[in-house]
Amino acid sequence: MTEKASIESLLQSFRSTKRFLITSHARPDGDAVGSALALAEILQQLGCETQIIMSDPAPYIYRSLPGVETITVATTAGDNDTPAIILECDSTERTGLKGLDSRLLINIDHHASGRHYGTLNWIDEHACAVAEMVYRIAVAAKVEITPSMATCLYAAILSDTGSFTYPSTTASTFEVAHHLAERGASPSLIARNLYFTNPESKIRLLAVALSNMKLDGQVAWSWVTDAEIERAGATAEDCEGVVNYLIGIAGIESAVFLREVAPGGEFRLSIRSKGKVDVAKVAESFGGGGHRSASGCTLEGPLAVATERILGQLRGQLRMGLC
Ligand SMILES: [Mn+2]
Known about the structure:
Blueprint (H helix, E strand, L loop, with lengths): L2 H13 L3 E5 L6 H16 L3 E6 L16 E3 L10 E4 L17 E5 L10 E4 L6 H12 L5 H14 L10 H12 L4 H9 L4 H12 L2 E3 L2 E6 L1 H6 L10 H6 L6 E7 L5 E8 L5 H6 L4 E2 L3 E7 L2 H18 L3
Parallel strand pairs: 1-2, 1-4, 2-3, 4-5, 5-6, 8-9
Antiparallel strand pairs: 7-8, 9-10, 10-12, 11-12
Helix pairs in contact: 1-3, 2-3, 2-4, 3-4, 4-5, 4-6
Bound molecules: manganese (II) ion.
């Protein structure tokens, strides 16, 4: 289906439905939170009632986004008759919410790993963020792009493009950003809220993670244990973005950061690539997903085993590419 046809069928559904549940993945990122908030506003302008439910709260740095207080944190999706719009998830399980499967599902995603599990599906892996797709819906629906909507969408795009640095950043990304800035998004204020309001615990945890760093050839990796997270007074959320420091090293092509989820148990992995390695494929081979240059998955511990498994895959991919 073309983009125009996909958006048209979404708009038909939006116009004929009174109430929507909006959700996104567990441990929501800036794109998940910003896009959900902006989409809720679009739907409200179209006369729909909306409820945003997520299985985890919005990360600290996104708590200044307008409307963030309307997000309900719960483990079940509530009323079975309410159609659900699921943003950037390749399955209903990814939401962390129970009770989604027996209702009308609208799936909007920009991941290469996206699957057509919904009643309606719009997957555009070329979109720099799901927020870009939500923006296109707003334009097609001819709703007013308010300053709060513009702020949420701009923050989502800024974070999901790595501050306009990932390969997904194109001229059209800047066109969208340009329009959002015209509609009331403040680039400097949003950047301040995203990058200069970190909790102290996040920087303390970063110090631990960087002291654990190892380099081998073109691969960098690091980890934090459950005990180290606790000692730093940090949370799982404080681990977001650590991997970007590792991939920032000259000569490194691929980086991985492992966070212990439970003592001796599982590790949550964030994987990055500068382009030679397709880390979406690597994550998928372990049941995860994401983009070519940024992905994630979960591996069983202990740490040495999880590390060897992921490094084996990354080294294998680098060898295959004869890099
Ligand atoms: Mn995204």
